From TrEMBL:
Protein name: Protein-L-isoaspartate O-methyltransferase
Biological role: Catalyzes the methyl esterification of L-isoaspartyl residues in peptides and proteins that result from spontaneous decomposition of normal L-aspartyl and L-asparaginyl residues. It plays a role in the repair and/or degradation of damaged proteins.
A Pfam family the protein falls into: PCMT
Enzyme class: transferase
Catalytic activity: [protein]-L-isoaspartate + S-adenosyl-L-methionine = [protein]-L-isoaspartate alpha-methyl ester + S-adenosyl-L-homocysteine
Keyword S-adenosyl-L-methionine: yes
Gene from which the chain derives: pcm
Active site: 64
Family in the record: Belongs to the methyltransferase superfamily. L-isoaspartyl/D-aspartyl protein methyltransferase family.
SUPFAM superfamilies reported in the protein's UniProt record: S-adenosyl-L-methionine-dependent methyltransferases
Domain of life: Bacteria
Cellular localisation: Cytoplasm
Amino acid sequence: MNDTFKHKGLRQQLVNVIKAKGIASPAVLNAIGSIPRHLFMDSGFLDHAYQDKAFPIAADQTISQPYTVAFQTELLQVKKGDKVLEIGTGSGYQTAVLCVLGAKVYSIERQQELFKKTSKFLPKLGYRAKKFVFGDGYKGLPEEAPFDSIIVTAGAPFVPKPLLAQLAIGGRLVIPVGNDVQVMTLFIRKGPKEFEQHEFGEFRFVPLLEDKN
């Protein structure tokens, strides 16, 4: 599990690329600059690890494009100690970003193969989520709610109501909504029944699937 000067240099270039695309949060840029993304990918893809692209991982899923990870994370406005629910652990790269920001991360994954792999692998790298759950992201994690923020890392055809219900007042839900192409959407909970909605352009994600397999 090597992280070399070469990797660090490539990471710095990646930080410059996403900065040029508009990511401004110093904390988010620092997280992208510090996490060895190449360790989250199959060794055959090492040359691609620090390109600003999504890549395939196990179970027909992808490791998200670094810009997308940074964009979603910036929208969350994570503060140290925030309780964050992540829907779709995937490779664990987004989980690691949230851990570096000091969040208490609760992460749900519905692909058993990925769940097993990532929940063992992340702590080995020193990224400790509060809880890894094998389950259905559409349901959220009611027993741990409310959350300061919720991030969905797969395209959702609609916004699951349980996720809105599990947000704290003032909490933020970032979710890509749509079928083939998704619109990055931010919901801010203003009151028990009141939500403010903002849209941030189109992105492409693998679909968020109901139930587990």
